[in-house]
Amino acid sequence: MPLLRRKAVFAAKVEATVGTAESLTGTEAAFNAEGFDIQPSVAVTRREGQGGFNYLPGIPEGMQGTCTVRFGMSYNGTDIPSWASVLLPACGWVESTGVFSPVTAGPSASGSVKTITIGHYKDGKRQLLSGAMGTWKIIAETGKAAMIEFTFTGKYSSNETDTAILSPTYPSVLPLRVAAGALTWNSVALCTSSVEIDAGNSVIMRECVNASDRSGYVSAIVTNRAPVITADPESVLVATQDRDALWLTSDPKAFSLQIGATGTAITIAAPKAQLENKQQGNRSDMLTDDLTWLCTANGSTPDTELTITFD
């Protein structure tokens, strides 16, 4: 009997012990996930045989995998959605009173940065990643639903199994539209067709012979971060905003994107966004500026370059 791609469920749970897979139930599958997939990445070392052009059985190397998944950025104005509360700490973004800020730290059971177990249930089969950490990218196209895409790397420490698909209670809150909000840089409103905000995490696997499973890894870990923003605002006169001067004099300014109306909004803010590149663009014969910013430190305090606030 053929298996159907669309008959699938995504599940994720914060791990109590870094790198130790958690049991997943319908509660951990309460997401409106789209386009999700787990792809193993396991190289096999070839072994040359003797006496001819033959090979001996190969040896699997470190066992890891990647999960990609995207969500509409839903928010009801009160409850932090599961795509944020569960997944952002596994990207090094930690919540305090509704604000997610980056944290420079490895994952731990007692700390705020976490690893997660991810399950892909697909029409009677299940794949798992454990000890997973990742990175994210927000895609905000004007007039459309705001989306956030995650890429996680983790241990492929067990084989696929025949497992019944989970039956979660799915969230009913709709994603926010990129409209009736606000977008500014240096207090000047920007009219764009799209904005992308990339967390820019570097994620590696922690090799360890003492790992408690076959994978050869303890877990994933985020080892660096370089958040970048790209947008295509309409060109304006120099008198309105001198973007060349702001670019070529290394003068960071505050960036803010409010998605949704005040009271049920998600705001992404970079207090010191430095313009790294400015190129002329064309949107249906209207001049635009294709801009790229690096989110730099806000003064001498680390981990202040980019925040996500649930208003």
Walk me through what this model shows.
There is one protein chain. With about 300 residues, this protein is mostly beta strands. It has helices at about 80-85, 245-250; strands at about 10-15, 35-40, 45-50, 55-60, 65-70, 95, 100, 115-120, 125-140, 145-155, 160, 180-185, 190, 195-200, 200-205, 215-225, 230, 255-260, 265-285, 285-295, 305-310. The N and C termini lie far apart (about 50 Å). Helices cover about 5% and strands about 50% of the residues. The chain contains 2 helices and 21 strands. The strands form 3 sheets. It has a 17-stranded antiparallel β-sheet that branches. The mean pLDDT is about 95. About 40% of the residues are buried. The radius of gyration is 22 Å and the shape is globular. Strand 9 (about 125-140) and strand 10 form a beta hairpin.
Which of globular, elongated, flat, extended, rod-shaped describes the shape?
A: globular
How many alpha or pi helices? 2
Largest sheet: 17 strands, antiparallel
The fraction of residues assigned to DSSP E strands is over 45%
What structural class do the secondary elements suggest?
Answer: mainly beta
Helix content: under 10%
Q: Based on DSSP secondary structure assignment, what is the total number of beta strands? A: 21
